[in-house]
Design goal:
The protein has 415 residues and is of the alpha+beta class. The chain has two domains: 260 residues, Bira Bifunctional Protein, Domain 2 (BirA Bifunctional Protein, domain 2, 2-Layer Sandwich); 90 residues, Anticodon-binding domain (Rossmann fold). Helix content is 38%, strand content 23%. The chain contains 14 helices and 16 strands. A hairpin with a 5-residue loop joins strand 15 and strand 16. Helix 1 runs antiparallel to helix 5 and helix 5 packs across helix 9. 33% of the residues are buried. The structure holds adenosine monophosphate. Adenosine monophosphate (AMP) binds next to strand 6, strand 10, strand 11 and helix 10.
């Protein structure tokens, strides 16, 4: 069989030890921080009705038009592997009515986007996200940003930076589009052709263009906030002031746009210098999502776990640092000891000791080699004579010394 038959689908990965130790650290610390901020976990299905994503993310967004994994089930229903976590979380909230009107929830798990695989872009990737449900309130936005920075610091990424902007209210939209077009129009001919088309179809996307000619012209245009109403600007100011009061310095970057349709007011991105071109660790923002007759308001963020790992690795962190301590290894000399050692193995595990043993009475050298391979610091050796005397030989693999101990002493030393 060709070795490619054993590989996962392109853009998807198996995650196993030692890498999984790092994943576990990331998830454990996230749970700890979320609990301190009184968020609880929601685990929604990975497969949802396709229309959920079309309605909540917007039917012209890249994710919806180009990137969704959509399939038909046996009943002809159109289903999609979730490309992000917010839509499902909001569906859950909308179903709960008043009961969930001020829910504080978090999720973690795989997301699926059929993107062109490249460094930093996977087809199955993982997000850890939170949603704080409730009416727009700049203090809530600041609280969620503070939580996110707290979490990043807990992971060892205190040097991540937040770029913050406002999308404004729906009623700001026309003024922003008009204002931007009027500011750019006199120099439209200087723009590359593709950018000229964007000018017509989606002028906001010019703001985050990497093209130098576009950047020059955008740089000379007034910031988008200038076209927005006083309420929007005051909202942004309160978010920034509240964060500064919390000793959190954020950069307001009026060129930041976010791809999904559901955002209102605050949006942000977390970037990290250790990442290459795909330098976004996370996206976040306030949203208003219409689900059936209900409009659900909230503020949240989603962090890309693969990117968090890339940033940690760029800073010299490696997964083996988070490996559990090595197990105790039990060596049996002869069949009688093997049988008794199985009991010992189980008892030690019930007392919280991680241990392993060879399940056949192989030659002692072979068993010691395996003990070495597991990295065991301590090895318990038992044969017929130890059984007879009711003792255990405990070998310290670090310095090679060994001692004879009885059961109470053994338990004292290992637990
Ligand atoms: P988004 O839902 O597009 O705002 O993405 C939120 C975060 O998820 C990004 O900042 C990335 O860290 C991560 N992310 C999004 N798409 C991918 C992908 N294709 N591969 C890996 N990480 C991704």
């Amino acid at each position: 069989m060709a070795s490619s038959q054993f590989q996962p689908i392109q853009g998807m990965s198996d995650i196993a030890a030692p890498d999984s130790f790092l994943w576990q650290m990331i998830e454990e610390r996230a749970r700890d921080i979320f609990t301190r901020y009184c968020f609880s976990e929601v685990r929604t299905p990975i497969l949802e009705k396709t229309e959920l994503f079309i309605h909540s993310l917007g039917d012209t967004t890249d994710v919806v038009t180009k990137e969704m994994y959509t399939l038909e089930d046996r009943g002809g229903r159109k289903l999609t592997l979730r490309p992000e976590g917010t839509a499902s979380a909001i569906r859950y909230v909308a179903a709960g009515g008043d009961k969930t009107a001020s829910a504080r929830i978090y999720y973690m798990g795989p997301m699926f986007r059929c993107e062109r695989p490249q460094a930093g872009r996977k087809r199955q990737f993982h997000q850890i996200g939170v949603e704080a449900i409730g009416a727009p309130n700049p203090l809530a936005d600041a609280e969620v940003i503070a939580l996110q920075l707290h979490l990043l610091a807990a992971w060892g990424l205190a040097d991540a930076k937040i770029r913050l902007n406002t999308i404004g209210l729906p009623e700001d939209r026309a003024a922003v589009l008009n204002g931007l077009r009027e500011a750019i129009r006199p120099r439209l001919h200087e723009l590359p052709e593709e950018a000229q088309q964007r000018f017509e179809t989606n002028v906001l996307r010019l703001l985050d263009s990497k093209d130098e000619a576009v950047q020059k012209i955008i740089g000379a245009a007034p910031p988008v906030t200038e076209f927005m109403c006083a309420e929007t600007r005051a909202y942004l100011d309160t978010v920034v002031e509240t964060l500064r009061n919390l000793d959190i310095d954020v950069e307001v970057d009026t060129s930041l746009v976010r791809g999904l349709d559901y955002y209102v007011h605050t949006v942000w991105e977390v970037v990290h210098g250790g990442l290459g071109a795909q330098n976004a660790l996370a996206g976040g923002g306030r949203y208003c999502i219409q689900i059936g007759k209900n409009a659900v308001n909230g503020v949240g963020f989603a962090m890309g776990v693969e990117r968090v790992i890339a940033a940690l690795e760029a800073g010299g962190i490696s997964a083996v640092q988070f490996a559990p301590p090595p197990p105790v290894f039990i060596v049996s000399l002869g069949e009688a000891a093997l049988k008794e050692n199985l009991l010992l193995l189980q008892m030690l595990r019930k007392h919280g000791v991680a241990c392993e043993m060879e399940l056949s009475a192989r030659k002692v050298q072979a068993q010691m080699r395996r003990a070495n391979k597991t990295g065991a610091r301590q090895v318990i050796i038992r044969g017929d004579s130890e059984l007879e005397k009711g003792i255990f030989v405990l070998k310290n693999m670090g310095d090679g010394t060994q001692s004879e101990v009885d059961l109470p002493e053994l338990m004292k030393l290992l637990t």
